Amino acid sequence: MRFKNFVYWLLGERLGRLTVVTWNWLWGNSEPSEPEQAVSNAEQSLRTMQESVDKLTQAVEIQVQNYREAEQYYRQKVEEYQELQGKAKVYKSSGNTEQARLTMIQVVQLEKLLPQLKQNVENAEKYVTDAKEKLMREKEKLESYKTELANMQSVQKVNEALSQMAEVNNNYKIDSAKSQFEAAKEVVDNKQAEVEAFYDVSKNSSEKMDEQFEQMDMEDEVSRRLEAIDSEDTSHQNQGKNR
Question: Taking the model in full, what pTM does it have?
Answer without folding.
Answer: 0.52
